[in-house]
Amino acid sequence: MIGFLHICKEAKKHGVSTAQELVGICSVAMEQTIKKGKNKKKILELLAEKGELNNSDIREALGISARTAVNYMDELEKENKVKQVGRIGHNVIYRLK
Fold first, then answer.
1. pLDDT tens across 77-87, in order?
2. CA geometry: angle at 23 spanning 32 and 3, to 5°?
3. Quick one: how far is CA 31 from the chain centroid?
4. Distance CA 16, CA 20 (A)
5. 45-54 confidence digits (pLDDT tens)
6. Is 23 in contact with 10 (CB distance < 8 Å)?
7. Closest listed residue to residue 72, CA positions, set 48, 94, 91
8. Residue ranges per domain, the chain?
9. CA-CA distances (angstroms) from residue 90 to 38, 79, 93?
10. Which of 28, 45, 78, 94 is most buried, by CB atoms within 10 Å?
């Protein structure tokens, strides 16, 4: 979590009020959350269409990094929406639950 003093310092550096800096931070966080939700929805749509996907398929379809793809799939697994088939590496594929 970003500390209040850090926010004040950043606001001064950017020449804005602390409130404006907080709004900017919240705006960026909201945009990232919306983008993540859209990407996860797209993954579920692709899985419904294709039956299974691997990490490369996901990266290519969304234009994201390998780490981001893994993070999305971990979240979808925790949400009980997908299952991972295979343990690690290139043999891992994902399917809808």
1. 999 999 999 88
2. 90
3. 11
4. 6
5. 999 999 999 9
6. no
7. 94
8. 4-96
9. 25, 23, 8
10. 94
Cα–Cα distance for residue pair 8/22, rounded to 1 Å: 9
DSSP string, 38-68: HHHHHHHHHHHHHS-B-HHHHHHHHT--HHH
- Mean local confidence (pLDDT), 32-58: 97
| Residue 74 tokens, joined | 């971990």
Q: Which of 1.10.10.10, 1.10.3720.10, 3.40.140.10, 3.90.1150.10 would CATH assign to domain 4-96?
A: 1.10.10.10
Per this entry, what is the length of the chain?
97
CA dist 21 and 1 (Å) reads 15
- Which single residue is written with the structure tokens 């234009």? 63
Instruction: Provide Rg for the chain, Cα atoms.
Output: 18
Contact 13, 55 (CB under 8 A): no
